[in-house]
Design brief:
Strand content: 15-25%
Number of helices: 5
CATH class: Alpha Beta
Helix content: 40-55%
Largest sheet: 5 strands, parallel
């Protein structure tokens, strides 16, 4: 399954092999990946420059956590569409991210078909058609 319409993305993860994996997976789903960040501060800066349709944001990153980046971006861009991708599973962290405005919170260690499906369903649920 792929996106039924084109979307742009920026991704942020402090692990280079996960950035490569996410870039490859998102491209295969039909995303145009505009940039990749290695920490929360870079994620904020890249979001400001590229204004992607979707930001994929890890929670545990150096310099600025994903949750801090989420809060900063949502204050500046209230309509930002952000999906948290992480290995952190605590209910408090999930709830805090969703309360801060994340569209969804997905575990990076989900089986690949399930992760792909969750991303597609989250985006289709939010974007009703091609972006103008």
């Amino acid at each position: 399954m792929t996106l039924p319409f084109p979307l742009t993305a920026v991704l942020a993860d402090d692990e280079s092999h996960l950035r490569l994996f996410l870039n490859t997976m998102l491209t295969s789903l039909g995303f145009r990946v505009l940039a990749a960040a290695a920490n929360g501060g870079e994620a904020v800066a890249l979001y400001r420059v590229h204004r992607p349709d979707v930001l994929f944001l890890d929670i545990n990153m150096p310099r600025m956590t994903g949750r801090e980046a989420l809060q900063m971006i949502r204050r500046e861009f209230p309509d930002a569409f952000i999906i948290m991708l992480t290995s952190v599973t605590g209910a408090d962290e999930v709830e805090a991210s969703l309360d801060a405005g994340a569209a969804n919170y997905l575990r990076k260690d989900l089986p690949l078909p399930e992760l792909r499906q969750e991303i597609i369903e989250t985006c289709i649920g939010h974007f009703s058609g091609p972006r103008q």
